Amino acid sequence: MPIHTAIWKVAEQPVLLQESSLISEQALENMIVAAPKILSDEWMLIGRQESTGFGGRIDLLAIAPDGSLVLIEIKRDRTPREVVAQALDYASWVGNLRSEEIAAIYGRFNAGHSLSEDFRSRFGRDLDEETLNSSHQVVIVAAFLDDSTERIVKYLTERNLPINVLCFQVFSHNGEQLLSRSWLLDPVRTQVSNSASADDSAEPWNGEFYCSYGAGESRSWEDAIQFGFVCGGGGEWYSRTLKLLGPGDRIWVKVPDWGFVGVGRVTGQIQSASEFKVSASQDGAEISILDVAKRGTYHREFINDPERCEYFVPVKWIQTVTYDNAVYEIGLFGNQNTVCKPTTPKWRYTIERLKAKFPNFDKG
To answer: Are residues 127 and 226 in the same domain?
Structure first.
């Protein structure tokens, strides 16, 4: 069913706001460039109206925290067949961009600025040229969504092609225009498909979950061991993949720049920092995680912000090690997503190595 939103003004007698339209979808593109958070708070715009070299220009290009690229095409007045076909055509160009070409695109978009420096300032991590553009996704921006576009996008997504639609609607209120947005598919689905598409030699998932635990000022691995959890926050990109986990799932945890530090079983569902409680006293009384986990900030400043607050998943640890004993070898799998279901042969090889390094892996 095509996306359609209705908005009412809250009052004793609710008032339905009238739907209107922007002057043009070019105006929407201009608004996105002026305020990128309209599109997403998780991506950094790096290009606009770049020539593909074969007779076309992409509308917008962005980069995600893991170095994957996001091609953004605005539907304008094209038919569903035209916009999807053109987006996929442009995606074939994006997928072949080299690191120096991506840096040059950003130089034209934001003259005098360095992509690596601005990436670190935006995401708080270094841009790894080895993983830069190892995968990409397509986002179609539309003022409305028709049945045909929905069918095409869902068909491609079911075949693990990371594509989604962001639908904007405009409403009138007291002489002003209000903008609303809705995703066709849950963004976690596209994010997971994107990480799975990074390797062309994909194979069936082996049932083992990968978890990247970004220890540092924001969170502590010692806390995670002591109180039994994994977590992520600071933005939906970092927390939404925790939704993949459910009771009984086995996770293998890697701390970036150190290596694999533990294996455990999930014992519950994802919860926000304000909801998550642990047994931290002898009488078994449950206490808020933020009252006992003191080695990290856990984005306490965002506790009332559902998009940026920290989210937790309870875990019973089977075997853990300290940073100094972390398992790090050339050739082991790595990914910046907080949780993913890798389908690459490298993950199968990684699990084989980790089972040898964590011999108690199957005792939990």
So the answer is: no
Site of tokens 């990480």: 195
CA distance 332 to 253: 12
- Residue 91's alpha-carbon distances to 70, 77, 115, 335, in angstroms, are 9, 20, 21, 21
Q: Give 15's DSSP letter.
A: E
Enter the pTM of the model: 0.77
**Arithmetic mean of pLDDT over the chain:** 88
Looking up tokens 């050339």 gives 330
CA distances from 256 to 259, 328, 336 (A): 6, 10, 8
Domain that holds residue 324: 209-357
Same domain for 184 and 82 = yes
Best CA proximity match to 87, nearest among 50, 55, 58, 53: 58
In a domain, 204, yes or no: no
Q: What is the pLDDT of residues 313-331, one digit of tens each?
A: 999 999 999 999 999 999 9
Q: Is residue 202 assigned to a domain?
A: no
> Among 197, 196, 166, which Cα is nearest to 182's?
166
**d(C-alpha 316, C-alpha 361), whole Å:** 12
Neighbour tally for 78: CB within 10 Å: 16
